Amino acid sequence: MTTPAREGNGVVLSGRSLRKAYGSIVAVDDVSIDIRRGEILAVVGDNGAGKSTLIKMLCGVTRPDAGTLLLGGKPISFHSPAAARAKGIETVFQDLALVPNQDVVSNLFLGREIFRGGVLRPLHLLNRHEMRRRTRDQLSALEVSIQREAGVPIGRMSGGQRQSVAIARAAFWASEVMFMDEPTAALGVREASAVLRLARRVADEGLAVVMVSHVMPHVMEFADRVIVMRHGSRVAEVTDDITAERLVRLIVGAEHPLGEKQEEQ
Amino acid sequence: MIDDASVRRRGERDSRSPAAASTPTVTFARAVRRVLLSERADAVGLGIALLALCAALTHESPYFLSASNFSAIGLAISISAVVASVQTVVLVSGGLDLSITAVLALSGVVAESTLQRGAPLAVAVLAGLAVGVVVGLVNSVLIVGIGVNAFIATIGTQFLFRGIAYIWTNGSSGAYLSGTSFNYIGGGRLLGVRFPIVLMFLTLVLTWFLMRYTRFGSRVYAVGGSEYATKLAGVSIWRLRTLIYVLSGVSAALGGLMLASLNGASFPQAGIGEELTIIGAVLLGGTALTGGRGTVFGTFLGVCLLGVLANGLNLLGINGFWQTFLQGAILVCAVAFDEIRRKLRAR
After folding, report:
1. Rounded to a whole number, what is the distance in Å from the CA of B128 to chain A's nearest CA?
2. pLDDT digits (tens, 9 = 90+) for A154-205
3. Among B189, B228, B216, which Cα is nearest to B86's?
4. What CATH number should be reported for the domain whose range is B41-346?
């Protein structure tokens, strides 16, 4: 795993003046964002505010119409999520993108399997033992308790366990940034908080974690920094004094980022 | 962090009431339930059915339990087993290939006419197998490249290549190939075992190995479970699916060579309608039509069950029409049982 030269403040990935339009609708307009190591950055906003589009441009799902991405201060562009992954940027999609009929080990290594070495290597024989060992190490490093990582299909696990597996997989392969799209949307209170504590541990290990979320209590409790999007623009960045009331006011446009109060027409 | 309450465990807990838990009947019932709901129940159930059928036939007919009869059964199921083992791969991947029987006919026709023109055996065999590669590629262009539904695409190619076989031969069967080296494929023996049976076991073991131990197999199960997730994980879907359809074509072509050699001649109408029998045997073996689930071993058991049934009815002198009926009955029971089990498990 490589570590590109960092900018100051541990910034690993930045977007500069990103813009994306779908037809006549401008989804994201002139948004800049800095993503830092060891930090959970939350992107919040109402439906259609442009959060998802912003994240998709950063993780390689869509390409910006204008603006630049900087990885470790150097300009870069991703033509696919695979290209972003190759640079150590992993994404936990809202639907998790796990294969339900396969176990944790197979899911963790799908597309990046480990083979037996030696003369048999061209046959691409799976080294299940090694994959299982690394899976176990990763799960225990992140304190994810799943009783049997091998053999039990993901589809038989609870929503929280599945989310944890998706995060463990992303964290396992990411060397720079892990994006999470609505990580707690489908979870109960207890599972959601377990999943977010897991995200916290991932950030503490030195990755940059970015989450898109609707759930204000989660954002307040777990985010170090919050970027508020509204109508495709970045309207505020909140680092301290993250209160639900303040965030909601920013999201709906009842509070101007500089503090002057504005009423919606 | 999160307790592991798998669905199956929950099911067990429901059936356990504290007072009755210790009585042997309940323990037995729970054990039965666990076996019925387990992943291996398909294979276990089929194995038991197969053994029961064999036991009954041993009891009913003095000819059943003999090496020569088992060799006859092996020969009878060899072609189905070769094609069905690779069909397992196709179905597990969430695909479908109905063009297999057209390939079966055309590969025999092509191999035979190549042989008639004086080409050596190896060239004729390769020409026959090449038919499978070509049809596999055409299927994948339609299914993977253009995105046509596999069912529709392979119905189309089935007619297309069956038509080519008819045009090529003008509808008549080929010249009798007796006395040529081509006969070895169907009629030869290796260490005393009929060569088609050898080919059957080779194909079964090879497919089983591919599915069980290689990256290819693991990705076949993955793509059958979720193509979307597999694609996002960076697996090239078109490459994987193309390989699967080419393998399917080649297995059918091999079956066609075996059939032409066994019959001593090729027939453009060979194997008509058999694609559903073969896919039926695969489904009987516990493979899901929806993809993601199935084993080559299960398919082998499914093919054996149907083969032993046909053989037994024959030995007992029962009208051959009963075979079709019983085949249907077994398949219907098997899929119904499978569905009930899945519902119970999901509860």
Report:
1. 26
2. 888 888 888 888 888 988 898 899 999 888 887 777 888 888 888 898 898 8
3. B216
4. 1.10.3470
Is residue B335 classed exposed, middle or buried when 0-12, 13-18 and 19+ CB atoms within 10 A define those classes? middle
CB-based contact A110:B229 (threshold 8 Å): yes
Which residues are CB-neighbours of A172 under 8 A, at least 6 positions away? A108, A134, A138
- Each domain of chain B, given as residue ranges in start order, spans 1-33, 41-346
pTM metric for this prediction: 0.85
The residue behind tokens 């089983």 is B208
C-alpha to C-alpha distance for A167 and A170, rounded to whole angstroms: 5
The separation between CA B13 and the C-alpha centre of its own chain, rounded to angstroms, equals 37
Contacts of A126 in chain B (CB under 8 A): 213-215, 218
| ipTM entry | 0.82
CB A176 within 8 A of CB A71: yes
Is any Cβ of chain A less than 8 angstroms from the Cβ of B232?
yes
A111, B234: Cβ pair inside 8 Å? yes
First to last CA, chain A: 51
